[in-house]
Amino acid sequence: MSQAETQSKLYLPSDAVVASAHVSGMDAYHALCKEAETDYEGFWARQARELLSWKTPFTTVLDESNAPFFKWFEDGTLNASYNCLDRNIERGLGDKTAIIFEADGGEVTKVTYSELLAKTCQYANALKSLGVTKGDRVVIYISMSIDGVAAMQACARIGATHSVVFGGFSAQSLRDRIEDTGAVAVITADHQVRGGKPLALKGIVDEALGLGGCDAVKNVLVVKRTGSPINMVEGRDLWLADLAASQPTTCEPEWVGAEHPLFLLYTSGSTGKPKGVQHSTGGYLLHAALTTQWTFDLKADDVFWCTADIGWVTGHTYITYGPLALGGTEIVFEGVPTYPDAGRFWKMIQDHKVSIFYTAPTAIRSLIKAAEANDAVHPKSYDLSSLRLLGSVGEPINPAAWEWYYKNVGGSRCPIVDTFWQTETGGHMITPLPGATPMVPGSCTLPFPGIQAAIVDETGKDVPNGQGGILVVKRPWPSMIRTIWGDNERFVKSYYPADFQGKYYLAGDGAIRDAETGYFTITGRIDDVLNVSGHRMGTMEIESALVSCTELVAEAAVVGRPDETTGEAVCAFVVLKRPAPTGDEAKAIAKQLRDHVGKEIGPIAKPKDIRFGDNLPKTRSGKIMRRLLRSIAKGETITQDTSTLENPAILDQLGQAY
Ligand code: WT7
């Protein structure tokens, strides 16, 4: 669809939605943008005072003296867990349900704010009893659970910096993260249950620690999920419930400076190993709360459901911190969208009367397929009348999926907020506000008030609307990444490159603004980062995983190709240490390589297609021709100039995917 065609399809929020929204109408949106433009620091300071409780009020707002290591509200002190729990209880919300947890098998457990605080305090005291203190790092390797949220809140309470590792990562990936953070403790569960199957968590922690390099880890705290036997190492491993049971249910919060690192979260970059994105306490929490208020328009009687895992930033900001900071009621779901059938999401929305639903395009696309094949799992077979707002995140949503979501899930009455942001941005950056912004399917529309998003060329010059370019953010914002843990230089190089005189934050995405409306559409990553089912992966990481299979692989190159369901799919081009295989042999080796990548990184990184060649297409100077690989991966007829190719015959071999 051309830009002009896309823009002709404007969807307006209804008058009722506009009337009741926190940001009501475009005039209100523009007024907020104007306020931020006129008095940038004043705008953010006002929000920070209104939305957060400070132990010591801040007197400085933005400190740019050591750019790009920006500081926000630096002399203010606060505690994130105090803001998410105690503060709500002090406002009379102690008996309000904070979390409705639904397990994989359907069992429901609810906790009130008072109960969640008590649990958090017991976990915090348990950590303290083991000597964990402010500034220590704690790795959390756990599936979706009340315990997972409480563990994160407990770390925040004592000023320990948490680093949650998604339960789908392998022992090797987990080890790398434990080592890089220098964690003193790991919090995990015996197992996780997904789609009716128990999967090891503690066993993988044991394996990770056994790989070496994690000497700082003194204790492993284990949550009992299935109770099936696991190995417990004497003196190191403890059942969290046993340790916590004897602890007091109160714990004085550790008041930390606003810049104190609340968490590290690893994400893939274009080169080398994953980066530990460091987030602050004050600025991060402010944006988590503010975006939950304005983008999700969260109100007292809402039931909010973000389907992301707490192992990703979406789960941090829109499960553990944002909705709780506002005293909301939220769903935490352990399972998968297709178990026991593909109607699970719709059934849960019906059962729990969910009013705000936030999920990823990849999930929507796979549920469309299932719904079209079977009426029983179609949204129309459920009562979804409780919904009032829908959200999308993680990758561009194609207009067809948007329209289906709008009509079939939202009953053509719920605005959809297509939220563009990143692990590094901490919260929404470009998004519609539901009671203000006219929506265009496939466009994340306009910057959140205060966010100075722009599109520039390679030299940092603004490009006119209608012309594509590089997405940047011109001014620092409170919830931005502070640094890459332990690697300030890589932080500067990755996000504040010299190309823009170190002035602009480089998102790593390409984007275009509509000539008339100025609406942003994200056109995809401009670096070697892939987005598979909303999960971010570096092509180099997967290449390293492949070549680490030293008995088989001589060389590997990885590119992405479009995929109908997962957005992008991983395609690997592999040169073996023996002639390129074909037929059944190729299939068997492809499986072996997929399993190897699964072991090195995790199942999410397994290549969908593997193509074997006796060589990779290279220029005479020896550079891999990645553009050509991308064409081959897409199955395009090769029209590119291949005259510089050293060995044109290999193109035939690479034509077959296994
Ligand atoms: C990358 C960030 C943001 C939380 C989940 C992913 C892509 C994200 C959108 C959107 C188009 C999007 C970008 C971005 N992305 N949201 N609404 N429209 N693209 O966080 O793993 O850090 O990935 O996801 O490419 O750079 P992440």
Radius of gyration: 24 Å
Helix content: 25-40%
**Gross CATH architecture of the domain at 533-654:** 2-Layer Sandwich
CATH-level-4 superfamily name of the domain at 533-654: ANL, C-terminal domain
Domain Acetyl-coenzyme A synthetase N-terminal: 29-84
Domain AMP-binding enzyme C-terminal: 541-623
Modified residues (N6-acetyllysine): 623
Domain AMP-dependent synthetase/ligase: 93-477
Structure summarized in a few sentences:
The protein has 658 residues and is of the alpha/beta class. The chain has 20 helices and 30 strands.
Descriptive account of the structure:
InterPro entries: Ac_CoA_lig (IPR011904), ACAS_N (IPR032387), AMP-bd_C (IPR025110), AMP-bd_C_sf (IPR045851), AMP-binding_CS (IPR020845), AMP-dep_synth/lig_dom (IPR000873), ANL_N_sf (IPR042099). Keywords: Acetylation, ATP-binding, Ligase, Magnesium, Metal-binding, Nucleotide-binding. This protein has 20 helices and 30 strands. The N terminus is likely disordered. It is α/β, with parallel strands linked by helices and 658 residues long. Helix 3 packs across helix 4, helix 8 packs across helix 9 and helix 11 crosses helix 12. The protein is globular. Strands 5-4-17-16-18-19-20 form a 7-stranded mixed sheet, sandwiched between helices. Strands 7-6-8-11-12 form a 5-stranded parallel sheet, sandwiched between helices. Strands 21-22-24-25 form a 4-stranded antiparallel sheet, with no helix packed on it. The protein has a domain of 122 residues: GMP Synthetase, Chain A, domain 3 (2-Layer Sandwich). Strand 6, helix 7 and strand 7 form a beta-alpha-beta unit. It binds 5'-O-[(S)-butoxy(hydroxy)phosphoryl]adenosine. The site of 5'-O-[(S)-butoxy(hydroxy)phosphoryl]adenosine (WT7) has 21 residues, from helix 12, strand 20, strand 24 and strand 25. 5'-O-[(S)-butoxy(hydroxy)phosphoryl]adenosine binds next to helix 12, strand 20, strand 24 and strand 25.
